[in-house]
Design a protein that fits this description.
There is one protein chain. Helix 4 crosses helix 5. This protein folds into 2 domains: 121 residues, Aspartate Aminotransferase, domain 1; 240 residues, Type I PLP-dependent aspartate aminotransferase-like (Major domain) (Aspartate Aminotransferase, domain 2, 3-Layer(aba) Sandwich), CATH 3.40.640.10. The termini are far apart. With 370 residues, the protein is of the alpha/beta class. The strands form 3 sheets. The chain has a 7-stranded mixed β-sheet, sandwiched between helices. A 3-stranded antiparallel β-sheet has the order 10-11-12. It contains 10 helices and 12 strands. Bound molecules: pyridoxal-5'-phosphate (PLP).
């Protein structure tokens, strides 16, 4: 059994990633590591060629389809290599034999990584960059001048490091829309059918590190190259039902449990978004009412519901905040190593009660140090 103290520590995991998982899922995992009842084996030793695992993949895929409302013209894949591998697989697949530039928004740290990787495979154009504003805001649709001839348009829906999130799909409906949703996948409705390809690694909202979900429209892959290494070819994984080589059985099983939790316990992505909204309002409300003690990084209109990034007056006070927070049992609040400061990540599995406890701690900290 998981001790109550262990549950309390986990429920106060505000890490940017790998993030918190739902308590009920952690309990099922614990059981599954001992034995998965239907199989008599530990999840860590079940064959990826078993009928049981084929069912796991099928159900996880169906659940994601249901949660996103996807039609049968989409494939749902469970791949390895993280979001970083998708930074490369997307241009390798879609820039083949194309001279026109793929268009990218540079909204923050992670889209910068995607752009650097894509530049290695082909012609890329950055249509907007927030670098001069220290990535404190995102563009409005009217600020973008987009080409109808671009092979695809890429952006990151939630900039995890800076805490910036788009409110609606960006880009032209006539150009394939490709999106890194690693840090807000299944946290809100996203009009998935307006995207040609969505990728999201699991370790923020979906499960442990080791598996990346790719949702791709079949027609996007019609002209893809035939000479890619098999592992980097989406077709290999489609044909093999995400079982091209030994897949991360454990990680995929946890994704299945999380999608069941979203469907049956939470009631779907709209219900999840409602809870996430309340969590974020609570935390941002506290920043806004702190008379400058807590200073939000993002402009309010672009604030992320998943990652609240803020500063205190000095780096010393931030260190003090982090160390007192840890003593009080709040984990993972240090900002990303590239920008420092504080980041409270409010992923799906972080409960409203945990955010209320953090808010109380922050109110008390301010009273002690203002
Ligand atoms: C964390 C993160 C990544 C990095 O993903 P890896 O799985 O480590 O390759 C990429 N994109 C976004 C938006 C992220 O939050």
């Amino acid at each position: 059994m998981i001790e109550p103290a262990m549950i309390a520590a986990n429920s106060r995991n505000f890490s940017g990633g790998p993030g918190a998982l739902p308590e009920s899922v952690l309990q099922q995992i614990q059981q599954a590591i001992a034995v998965v009842p239907e199989t008599g084996l530990s999840i860590l030793g079940i064959s990826h060629r078993s009928a049981w695992f084929a069912d796991v993949v099928r159900e996880a895929e169906d659940n994601i389809r249901t949660l996103l409302g996807l039609g049968s013209d989409y494939h749902v894949l469970f791949l390895q290599g993280g979001a970083t591998q998708q930074f490369a697989m997307v241009p390798l697949t879609l820039l083949h034999n194309r001279s026109a530039a793929a268009e990218y928004i540079h909204g923050g740290y992670w889209s910068g990584k995607a752009i650097a990787e894509a530049s290695r495979s082909g012609n890329i154009k950055v249509v907007w960059s927030g670098a001069n504003d220290r990535f404190t805001r995102l563009p409005a649709a009217e600020e973008l001048q987009l080409s109808p001839d671009a092979p695809y348009f890429h952006y990151v829906s939630n900039e995890t490091v800076e805490g910036l999130q788009f409110r609606q799909p960006m880009g032209l409906d006539s150009v394939p829309r490709v999106c890194d949703m690693s840090s807000d996948f299944l946290s809100r409705p996203c009009e998935a059918e307006r995207f040609s390809l969505i990728y999201a690694h699991a370790q923020k909202n979906l499960g442990p590190a080791g598996v990346t979900v790719v949702v791709v429209r079949d027609s996007l892959l019609q002209n893809s190259p035939t000479d890619l290494p098999g592992f980097l070819d989406y077709h290999s994984h489609i044909k093999a039902h995400s079982n091209y080589n030994t897949p991360p059985v454990f990680a995929i099983y946890v994704v299945l449990l999380v999608t069941r939790w979203l469907l049956h316990d939470i009631g779907g992505v709209a219900a999840m978004a409602h809870i996430n909204q309340r969590k974020a309002e609570l935390l941002y409300g506290l920043l806004d009412q702190s008379e400058g003690f807590y200073r939000g990084h993002a402009r309010p209109a672009d604030r992320s519901l998943m990652n609240a990034v803020f500063n205190l007056a000095t780096p010393e006070l931030e260190q003090r905040f982090l160390s007192e927070a840890l003593t009080a049992g709040f984990h993972g609040l240090a900002g990303h190593r590239s920008i420092g400061g504080i980041r409270a990540s409010l992923y799906n599995a972080v409960t409203l009660a945990a955010v209320e406890e953090l808010a109380q701690f922050m109110t008390d900290f301010r009273a002690r140090h203002a």
